[in-house]
Amino acid sequence: MDAGGIIGFVIYCIVGSLFIVFGILSFFSKNPVGFWANIKMCEVTDTRDYNKATGKLFLCFGIFFIIFGLPLLAGQNSPLILLSIAGDMFLVITVMLVYELVIMKKYRKR
Q1: What pLDDT tens digit does each residue of the chain (110 aa) get?
Q2: pLDDT at position 12
Q3: What is the pLDDT, as a whole number, of residue 20?
Q4: Distance (Å, rounded) from C-alpha 72 to C-alpha 17?
Q5: Which residues contact 38 (CB under 8 A, 6 or more apart)?
Q6: What distance in Å separates the CA atoms of residue 34 and residue 39, rounded to the nearest whole number?
Q7: Residues 64, 91: contact at Cβ < 8 Å?
Q8: What is the pLDDT of residue 41?
Q9: Phi, psi (deg, nearest 5) at residue 60
Q10: I need a labelling partner for 106 at 20 to 30 A (CA). Which of 4, 19, 75, 100 fits?
Q11: What's the CA gap between 64 and 58, in Å, rounded?
Q12: CA–CA dist 82, 86 (Å, integer)
């Protein structure tokens, strides 16, 4: 274990923790929580349930993001870093698909 890997993992933990905190705050929000940056939020049918679903999505993202940071602890030149890269790409694409195809399909006001 080298210092660079530990610092990288700590950064992964900080970023993942921010998403976890944002997910928890989503549960208590009175207004619909935005997912995309700089885009006006559309109207939803049930704000409370929408925020709960979006909060769960952010919580899962934060937890899996931290888990995908674990290969950084294997060392600087470890090929396991490819698991972090591929896992993060898969995670981000999955979260976007779940948001658009599941959450927005269910809660968008028509």
Answers
A1: 688 889 989 999 999 999 999 999 999 999 999 888 878 888 899 999 999 999 999 999 999 999 999 998 987 788 889 999 999 999 999 999 999 999 999 999 88
A2: 94
A3: 97
A4: 17
A5: none
A6: 8
A7: yes
A8: 82
A9: -60, -40
A10: 19
A11: 10
A12: 6
Lookup result for tokens 């705050």: 25
Q: Is the CB of residue 38 less than 8 Å from the CB of residue 104?
A: no
Per-residue pLDDT, 66: 97
The whole-angstrom separation of Cα 49 and Cα 107 is 8
Q: Rounded to the nearest 5 degrees, what angle is found at the Cα of 61, between the Cα atoms of 55 and 63?
A: 105
**Number of residues assigned to the chain:** 110
> What DSSP string describes the chain?
--HHHHHHHHHHHHHHHHHHHHHHHHHT-SSPPP-STTSPPPPBS-HHHHHHHHHHHHHHHHHHHHHHTGGGGG-TT-TTHHHHHHHHHHHHHHHHHHIIIIIHHHHB--
pTM of the model: 0.90
